[in-house]
Amino acid sequence: MNDEKVIEQKLQDKGLNAPRLSPDDIDAVIVAESFTVLPSGKCMICELTLVNGFTVRGESACVSVNNFNEEIGREISRKNARDKIWGFEGYLLQQRLHEGHGLSLIQERKYTVQSGKIINRATGKAIPDDEPIMIFRAKDEKSCAALFSYMAVCKDEIHQAVINGRINDFKEFQQNNFGLVREPDSDPSCLPGAKQA
What we know:
The protein folds into 2 domains: about 1-105, no CATH class; about 135-185, no CATH class. Helix content is about 40%, strand content about 15%. It has 5 helices and 5 strands; from the N terminus they run ααβββαββαα. The chain has helices at about 5-15, 25-30, 70-100, 145-155, 155-175, and strands at about 30-35, 45-50, 55-60, 110-115, 115-120. It is elongated. The model has no long low-confidence stretch (mean pLDDT about 85).
C-alpha cells in the first residue's frame, strides 16, 4: 500500500470527513498522459492533462545516461507531475468552500455549480435552463436501485463504470449514515404545472 493510501485510511479511521481531497479525487481529474525523453537521454518528462485542459509536468533525471531506465523514468516523472495536482485541486476546493457554492469532486465528479448553473466538468458546458433534470441523493433509500436499473440499460461501458462507482459511493454513505436514509419525498411545488417560487 502506497503512502497516500495509508494516510487516506488513517483519515477515514479517525472519521475526518470534512471537505478534503483523496487520492481517488486526484486520479479522477487526470484524462491523459504523455512521456518524453530529452535529447541528452538522461531526463524523462511526464505531462498530465487534467479534465479542464490544464497540464502539469514532472521530471526524472540521472547523472549518467548508462543509468537511465525508461520504466523507472516514467514512474518517477509521473509521480512528480501528479504530486503537483494536489496543490491545484486543494486551491479549487478551498475556493469553492470560500464562495459557498459548487460541488466538490468528493460529491460529484461529472458536474459542478458555477454562477447558479450546473456545469459539466469535462466540457465546461452548462445544462440549459429548459432541460429537465432529476437529482438522486444517497440518503434516498431507493437511489441505489434506481441507479442500478439505469446502469443496466446503458450501453457505454465507461458510463456503466461511472454509474457503478456512484452506486458504490451511495452504498458507502448509506452504511455510514444509516439514520439519515429514508423513503424519498418531494414537495408539492415539484409537481408538473406547479408555480415556482
